[in-house]
Amino acid sequence: MAKYRSIVILTGAGISAESGIPTFRGADGLWEGHRVEDVATPEAYVRDPELVHHFYNMRRAALGTVAPNPAHAALARLEQAFDGRFLIITQNVDDLHERAGSKNVLHMHGELRKAWCLGCDNRTAWLEDMTEESRCPHCSREGRLRPDIVWFGEMPYEMDRIDEALSGCDLFVSIGTSGNVYPAAGFVAMVRHMGRAHTLELNLDPSEGSRMFHETRHGPASQLVPEFVDEVLGG
Ligand code: OAD
Q1: Residue spans of alpha helices (H) in the chain
Q2: How many C-beta atoms surround the C-beta of residue 99 within 10 A?
């Protein structure tokens, strides 16, 4: 364990797949015939807000039917036992890391269970369905709430904090992400450029950027992540 002082973990849809949340680019990746890229954009929201709300309402409701799996639990265990710096950067908009007990989680693509008011710029916990009539609990205005999700073409959250964490880490682990969506897909190259950190991919199959990693292991996250955590904690 003394080997590492700062660990950054990047997670994607693959870590939640075994909890029952479909990935984006898998065989089950289409939603009612739509590609996610056709729904998760500001343009789609302007064109058809009802459809976009429906998409996220379904996904938000589905969170009530799923639970963290052993991969989420192992990362929470690692964070608790590790005495260096530890950050999970997740592209996932579910809350399974938090429900497993992880504390230091950065949701770079936003969160399903949050609403963002375009009227007053406040972000609020939001557990129900959202519609064009939903009222902001802060400014009371109607029709200004949208899901607090980073859509295609928008800037992911907290990039400064992410840059700082990536440049200071000595272990970077990417779990369950296909490496199709930037900037997250470029994190391994940034880390390699710094030249200090070991980089490891844990994924069901090789991602787009697999060759960039020092080490890759392929298999289900529920198996690979607990094994990896045991290794790190075992020294
Ligand atoms: P993808 O659906 O693109 O990729 C999921 C990855 O997880 C694939 O490489 C799978 O092989 C892998 N996988 C599937 N099941 C797994 C398992 N049980 N264990 C380990 N790996 C498994 O999802 P992301 O890479 O997360 O953005 O997608 C990135 C972004 O694209 C998302 O955050 C979302 C999406 O459009 C926005 O919504 C802005």
Answers
A1: 14-17, 36-39, 42-47, 49-62, 70-81, 96-100, 159-168, 187-194, 221-234
A2: 16
Residue 122 binned pLDDT confidence (cut-offs 50, 70, 90): very high
Cα(165) to ligand 1 centroid in Å equals: 22
**pLDDT tens digits for range 125-181:** 999 999 999 999 999 999 999 999 999 999 999 999 999 999 999 999 999 999 999
Q: Is the bond leading into 183 cis (omega within 30 degrees of zero)?
A: yes
Task: Report DSSP state, residue 186.
Answer: G
Mean pLDDT throughout 183-194? 97
Considering the entire predicted model, what is its pTM? 0.96
| Summary mean pLDDT of the chain | 94
Ligand 1 within 6 A of CB of 14: yes
Residues 6 or more apart in contact with residue 128 via CB below 8 angstroms? none
Span 215-224, average pLDDT: 98
- Residue 109 annotated as catalytic: yes
Q: Is the CB of 177 under 6 A from ligand 1?
A: yes
Residue 84 structure tokens:
């260096």
- Spatial separation of the C-alpha atoms in residues 196 and 52, rounded to whole Å: 42
Q: Which atom of ligand 1 is nearest to the CA of 220?
A: 19
Cα distance between residue 192 and residue 187, in whole Å: 9
Looking at the CA of residue 184, tell me the nearest atom of ligand 1: 29
For atom 32 of ligand 1, the residue with the nearest CA is 91
Q: How many CB atoms lie within 10 A of CB 36?
A: 16
The residue type at 193: H
